[in-house]
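Listing S7. Sequence submitted for prediction.
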Amino acid sequence: MHVSLHALRRFGLLLAACAAALVAVGSLALPAGGAPSTDALRNQIDRQSGQEDQLASAADRLGALEQRASRAVDLMQGRLDAKQGDLDTLQAKLDETRRQLRGQRRRLARLRALYESEQQSRRELARAIMDSRN
């Protein structure tokens, strides 16, 4: 499975944002004087609610990104499979062409040998005829 570098960077940024939000929520400390005031608690609840909304939004974006990446990978895998099929077909044609070429080269060698043999026989016949006339 291949995912683009851009998608990986976006995924990393989303994870970093989620982690930062979680750290911020976890690091909220109680005031040194003891129990927090009602206003402080309301402010903390509002901040946490905002952070939850941001995290939910980031999770939604991450899910959408994952779906797009998955569709892109599926599309590219389909293209790769089609090209592999084309390559396999062409490789089979090449193998057959090479087999036929080897056969034709053997035939050519036999024909050349036969031609040379016939040429030799003609030369010998010509010499025999010339010698018989002398």
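Caption to Listing S7: primary sequence and predicted structure tokens for the chain studied. The helical segments are 5-26, 38-133. The mean pLDDT is 86.
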